[in-house]
Design goal:
alpha+beta, 434 Repressor (Amino-terminal Domain), two-stranded antiparallel ribbon, Lambda_DNA-bd_dom_sf, Cro/C1-type_HTH, Transcriptional regulator, DNA-binding
């Protein structure tokens, strides 16, 4: 039997950005990525690199694990 992993990273980027009254473009410019990257990240369709996660956390003056969390989900295949 194979294990199928469907783990992912959830984030609170949208919540932090809205609290600062920033646009996606403002945040993108601040952390050096495109607006599209912020958009897909906020929809949980993109997991950032560690560097980007730390950049975002640093920008919001928060710990990485306050914004990003690992969700483990694995199932046996078969």
């Amino acid at each position: 039997m194979k294990k199928k992993f469907e783990d992912h990273i959830q984030n609170k980027v949208y919540e932090y950005r809205v609290l600062k009254r920033m646009t996606q473009q403002d945040l993108a410019n601040a952390v050096g990525v495109s607006k599209q990257t912020i958009f897909v990240m906020e929809k949980n369709n993109y997991s950032p690199s560690l560097i980007l996660a730390f950049r975002i956390a640093d920008f919001f003056e928060a710990d990485v694990d306050e914004i990003f969390s690992y969700v483990r989900k694995d199932e046996d295949d078969g």
